[in-house]
Here is the input.
Amino acid sequence: MTKKSGKSVSFDAMIKFFMMRFEIPTRQDIQKLIGRIDQLEKTIRVNAISEKMRQPQNAAKSTRHGKAVLLNGAPGSASAFILEAIRNSEQGMTFAEIQTLTGFDDKKIRNILHRLHKIGKIVRKRRGLYVVES
Here is the structure.
């Protein structure tokens, strides 16, 4: 008998063939899934915080005269709305959480937080995390 001549199949090629054939995930596939799961968890956390703080049709909206509508529906200032939101949170609120809850622009929130901190109504627990003064 004569021996067939041809290319020998490498071990790596065999492994790749079996992984594709039996749909076995690679390390890259698993890393992509982990990344997607992290994004979903972050989105769920942000939505849970905003839903916990927000009541169904009582978002903070500025009126023509610069007053905001508080969580309980009563008119008030934007500072009062942010202070009430921080007070209602258990562990304080981050800048991003305040922004998603209120819908105010960055500059307005920064000015309000600075003013509330300056008069002693809130405390900066760490960078970006604000709690009500006890």
Q: What stands out?
A: Strands lie at 68-69, 75-76, 93-94, 122-126, 129-132.
